[in-house]
Structures are given as C-alpha cells and as structure tokens.
Amino acid sequence: MTDKIKTAFIYPGQGAQKIGMGADFYKNSAAAREIFERASEALDLDMKALCFEENDRLDLTEYTQAAMVTTCLAMTEAVREAGLQPDITAGLSLGEYAAIAEAGGMDALDAIRLVRKRGILMQNTVPAGEGAMCAVMAMDAGKIEEILADVPDVGIANYNCPGQIVITGKREGVEAAVIRLKENGARRTVMLNVSGPFHSPMLIPAGEELAKEFDQITLHPLKIPYMTNVTAQKVEDIAETKGLLVRQVSSPVRWMQSMEAMIAEGVGQFIEIGPGKTLAGFMKKIDPKCKVHNISVWEDIENVTEVLRGGAGC
Q: What's the mean per-residue pLDDT of the chain?
C-alpha cells in the first residue's frame, strides 16, 4: 500500500439504467447539458427523451449503452466542476468507456459513438434465443469454473463480487450448467433478461467489427491510469486500449479482481458516478471496509464533497 490515499471514479454498466437518469444534472449544469446535446447531435438520437422520459427503448442494448455513457460522462462534468478528481478510473463492462474518457484516453463523444456501435453489434451478432446469461449466487468462483470446465459453450461473463458470478453462452449449455451448479450446492440462480450471451466467445465477431470503428476516432495519451476489465490490471499506455476493448466484448468482466487490484494500489476512496448503487453493493462483499460514495442525483455532489473533506476511506 502507498502512503497517499487515492481516489477512484468508477462507472456502472448495463442494468443500472433507469428513466430520469441525469435529468437533474441537465437542469443544473451547463457542462452536463452540453454532453447530452452534443451526444444527441452526434448520434441523431434525442438523448433527453431516451434518458428522461418514459419509453420502451432505454432497456434495449442498442440504446442502453449510449444512454448510460452519455449520462455518466454528463454527471462527471458536474462532479469535476465541484473540484473532485480521480487518481485512477474503472468501469464495469460498458462503463469502462466512461472510465477511459475520464482518464483522458478518448473524447466524450468518441466514447459515446463507440458504445452506440458496440450496443448494436452486441444486440445483433447472436440471433435472439440462441444465447443466455444466468447469475449464480453464493458459490465460490473457483468451484463454478471447475463445474463449467465440463460444460461445452459456457463460461463466466462477470466476476462481480464474492457470491455473485454471472455465466454466459449457448442457451442449452447455460441451462445444463444451471442444473449442474445446483446439484453442486449453488443456493440460487437467476436467468437474466438480456438480449444476448454477452462476454462470451459467441460475441467475438462483434469485437472484430467494433475494431473497425476505432479507425474513425483518435485515442489520446492517458492523463491517469484506468483499470481494465479484461486483465484486472492498470493501463497506463493508450496503445493497449483498442485491443483490450475489442477483447472485452467476448471476455469475462473481472470486476472483483479489478477492485482488489485498486485497493492494493492504494485506492481508499471510490466514487460511483451513474444511476443506482450497484457497484457499492459489490464493494460491500469485495471489501466491507471500503466505502463507495455514490453520485447518482444532483444533491449527491455536495454530500460527497463534504464527506471527502473529512478524509473518509477504506
């Protein structure tokens, strides 16, 4: 551990979205408002309607991803205006794009354009019904890996936290795996309502198509490091980013390992920026000593700033 307590900005992934997210930031911050307006223009989508008003598109992957990253980056503009700055960043799955943008590796609009394309590719690469995902509760990750080794076409999608692992792959394989897991002591399994087998090898073609999109954007040298989902290691060289993001589409999300690595790096203050408190919930199981401060509504900025002045951390 280093002497200095470091601050991390962390960003949630798909599933945290909700109607109304970011509306108060749009109202109260000109910088946040600009992110929403520029994203609307760049994507030819009404981001205000998508994020703020009742609709049936926000939960569709092709729209969710752009909406989430737009909202998280708009919120971050307001957080920065309040004087809060990170030493390192991380994001769960699509949240990694917000993390890279905040680390200086890509412009906000390029991050939003990339996840818009990523969402379309992830939704459309595997025909509906062919893949599935399932959350496995209260079973050790090593035990799950051992059981899945004998189940074809199924692997781990997300190492979220101890006691919550998500598996992914061909539907019949996932269903067979669930039976095996329950026979071996899994207390609870929950099939997820998602449009594809995300973070499985079935999504490799989506990653290959996504790679082509990087020709349309410019990556910049990182101002601070970010933690990648793919290896749970710190990234300091932007040259690694394209390859990692291409692999990330079909690789497991090593969130639990990423947070453990951040704590080992001396991170003692985590600020979750985005709707909900998903990542804070994971952290309670990863390391209960660590406090995650949530910024999901406008009032949170002042509250978190006050708490951090007191030096609260792990």
A: 95
